[in-house]
Amino acid sequence: MKFDIMTLFPDLVEYVLGESVIGRAQKAGFIEISTHNIRDYSEDKHRRVDDTPYGGGKGMLMMAPPIYRCYEDICKNNSEVSSRRVVFMSPSGKVLNQKKAEELSKYEHLIILCGHYEGVDQRIIDEIVDEEVSIGDFVLTGGEIPACILVDSVARLVEGVLSDPECYEKESISSGLIEYPQYTRPYEFHGVTVPEVLISGHHGNIDKWRYEQSIERTKLNRPDIYEEFERRNRLEKE
What we know:
The protein is an alpha/beta fold and about 240 residues long. Helices cover about 40% and strands about 20% of the residues. Strands 2-1-6-5-7 form a five-stranded parallel beta sheet, sandwiched between helices. Strands 3-4 form a two-stranded antiparallel sheet. The mean pLDDT is about 95.
């Protein structure tokens, strides 16, 4: 899978996505991530990419032409892809969740636009963007960190990035429940021991305990997810 990120701060994106699992996945060839500095597509001698908004208001707005030239260049160099999606990281978009990450992982090519300043000219959104995605109901200084989060959540679903599909199929959220508590050595820490069921060797009892713990944690920490879990169970029984 190929990711192309249009940004004013490529070094930030490359630093974050060049480490850990995503960094190793790139080196192994399971995914390809490229960053594109929008300033390189400015025709201004000072590499200017922003201007004051029409109608007044505070702050600066990213101009459409440099972004569009960057987009054209990416498309020209990836003309062979069969499925492409252009995503704009924006607090106005739908909030990213696991279902959206799974949807986006089906595409062969994702182009991600990172906004900055007060945003981008609406005409570029209308012209090239397929959907706007947010990472939450809050505002950040730019779209680079949200873009890294989007790439991480999508890339880990690509075959080969994780060692086994079970790594994401049975984990928190993906399964429809919050993940159960987990423990490792030492057996005792600050007077608290590992639950006996986990060292019993009885896999049936372990699975049952983990499932019950997942339900309780979901009910306590994420009642919204628990309600959806209950709704699906009722529908299955009808």
